[in-house]
Amino acid sequence: MNRMMKPTSMLLAAAGLGIASLTGCASTASTKLPPVYLQGTVLDNHQIGVSKRTEFLEIAISPVASEITLKDRQQIADFVTLYRKRGHGPLIMSLPESSANPQLAVSAVATAREIAWQNGVEYDEIAGSSHGEGSTVSEPLLMAFQVYDAVAPDCKPLSEYDYSDVSSNNESPELGCAVRTNLAAMIADPADLLGQRKLDAADGPRRAVILEKFRNGEATASTRGRDESGAVSQAVGN
């Protein structure tokens, strides 16, 4: 006599066959998953580089003048401002040893130091040097400092990628490259990417004031005067 299979047994058998078939598919399917896919993020594929260079300024020493010109003073001030924004290491001022006007050369260095101090550069941030020994021509006053530049990743043209290839669900190789390129252009000081800048100490008293205002339900933003308002002027009627 044939025994009929119970419904529960039939369902279990069918489920077993389904699992077996899925296992077989999983064991033969190709995922084409690169090892780097599981390491970091897509942005790690397009790192921003950092390069170092030297900024120079030359101030000509006139053989007949008694002081440097107003234009030279402005050039020095602009150079010092750039040093304050992006400079690293000492601000070097090099005295020319070969000059048609040695007195002016020494005076130019003193003037440059004074302009630097007036623009927020401490004297211990300035390094003295000399150049042009044995030169047959009158050398200029030289100023220099080190600066860092961000190097954007090399993004390939989109035409080089085959977007019709859907053999895997991995991200495209160029994903994140444009983001890194834009970020490289916006970084104020690329030296920060090297981790060289130290954080300033926290302002404990100011933090306590803000916390107390927050507890009392008061506004924590600084109070603005009328001159600091961002409202559009109504002086001119429509």
Q: What features would you describe in this structure?
A:
Pfam families: Pilus_CpaD (PF09476). Residues 1-26 form the signal peptide. Keywords: Signal. InterPro entries: Pilus_biogenesis_CpaD-related (IPR019027), Pilus_CpaD (IPR013361). The mean pLDDT is 81. 14% of the residues are buried. The chain has a four-stranded mixed β-sheet. The chain has helices at 7-28, 70-86, 102-118, 177-186, 204-215, and strands spanning 49-59, 88-96, 126-131, 141-151. The chain has a domain at 39-160 and 171-196: 60s Ribosomal Protein L30, Chain: A, CATH 3.30.1330.60. The chain is built from five helices and four strands, in the order H-E-H-E-H-E-E-H-H. The protein is α+β, with helices and mostly antiparallel strands and 238 residues long.
Could you name the key traits of this structure?
single chain, 238 residues, alpha+beta, 60s Ribosomal Protein L30, Chain: A, four-stranded mixed β-sheet, 5 helices, 4 strands, flat
- The average pLDDT value, as a whole number, equals 81
The helix-and-strand class reads: alpha+beta
CATH class of the domain at 39-160 and 171-196: Alpha Beta
The strand count comes to: 4
What is the 3D shape?
flat
Gyration radius, rounded:
34 Å
Oligomer: single chain
- The low-confidence runs, each spanning 5 or more residues with pLDDT under 50, are none
Distance, first to last CA: 102 Å
Strand order of the largest sheet: 1-4-2-3
CATH topology (level 3) name of the domain at 39-160 and 171-196: 60s Ribosomal Protein L30, Chain: A
Q: Return the CATH architecture of the domain at 39-160 and 171-196.
A: 2-Layer Sandwich
Percentage beta strand: 15-25%
Helices and strands, in order, run as: HEHEHEEHH
Instruction: Note the main sheet.
Output: 4 strands, mixed
CATH fourth-tier homologous superfamily of the domain at 39-160 and 171-196? OmpA-like domain
Number of helices: 5
What helical percentage do the residues reach? 25-40%
